[in-house]
Write a structure and sequence with these properties.
By secondary structure, the chain is an alpha/beta fold. It has two domains: 145 residues, 3-Layer(aba) Sandwich (Rossmann fold); 102 residues, OB fold (Dihydrolipoamide Acetyltransferase, E2P). It has seven helices and 15 strands. The strands form four sheets. It has a five-stranded parallel sheet, sandwiched between helices. Helix 2 runs parallel beside helix 3. The longest helix has 20 residues.
Length: 257
């Protein structure tokens, strides 16, 4: 019988597989109950399955690992996985948060497993104000890093026999459509051969936010937000009649605007 349950959240399938393989050898009693491909999925799976341990990639499409951790603080033991040791490790240490640096070394993971086992035997997770402070610090560093990178300014799309360069400021929203993404902008609609996750990583996060696992919206095009049934909501766009669903995991974004 498993002595503990875990969720792994990372947008790299190979890393998830390797981490599961390492954990199987180092902690055979641990049951990995689910794997999430992005932050939004991680929150949904966590709420449904309530694992005791969560391995979180810091940088994921949609909600970052830091944003996800805010939702889970005090409800599970958290372990961050990061490729950017130079900017995060000290902050993690100050907050007594465990972390793993990519590529994950089994020896280092063994230390983490030992600490997790001890914590689960002695205590239940509790909310710690200092953890929130550290998470805010890391999140701000990550935001500044993203701002320094080049952001997408044009979206190339085929409209009939013509290739259009769509300025991102004209885009109302993007919606997942099987293997494509539908781009809706002031001049019409077009399908592009990129996933919604790829687009989320390339667009300016201060302007474009994910409001549903399949939808990204341009905040400059939003007229108003209204609450819907349950904990969900919907957006009304400027100059358009359609309304966009906001999942309950993203409603909190509009409380901060």
């Amino acid at each position: 019988m498993p002595t503990a349950t875990a969720l792994i959240a990372d947008d790299e399938p190979l890393l998830r597989e390797r981490l599961v393989s390492h954990l199987t050898r180092l902690w055979p009693e641990l049951e990995v109950v689910a794997q999430a491909r992005n932050g939004t999925e991680a929150v949904e799976l966590f709420d449904r399955l309530q694992p005791q341990v969560v391995f979180l990639d810091v940088h994921m499409p949609g909600l970052s690992g830091i944003e996800v951790a805010r939702c889970m603080s005090g409800r599970a033991e958290l372990v961050f996985v990061t490729a950017f040791e130079q900017y995060a490790v000290e902050a993690f240490r100050r907050g007594a948060i465990d972390y793993l640096v990519k590529p994950i070394e089994e020896e280092r993971l063994a230390e983490t497993v030992q600490r997790l086992r001890a914590r689960l035997q002695l205590t239940t997770p509790e909310f710690r104000p200092e953890l929130v402070t550290v998470l805010n610090c890391i999140n701000e560093q990550w935001r500044q890093r993203l701002e320094s990178q080049h952001r997408l300014k044009w979206i190339k799309a085929s409209v009939g026999s013509v290739v259009r360069l769509i300025p991102v400021e004209e885009v109302f929203y993007l919606k997942s459509a099987t293997k494509y993404t539908l781009v809706v902008w002031e001049g019409g609609e077009a399908l592009i051969r990129k996933s919604i996750l790829e687009m989320a990583a390339e667009l300016d996060p201060d302007r474009f936010i994910q409001i549903h696992r399949s939808t990204i919206v341009n905040l400059d095009k939003v007229r108003q937000f209204s609450h819907g049934p349950g904990d969900a909501g919907e957006l009304h766009l400027k100059g358009r009649t359609e309304r966009l669903a906001v999942s309950r995991n993203h409603v909190h974004l509009f409380h901060q605007i």
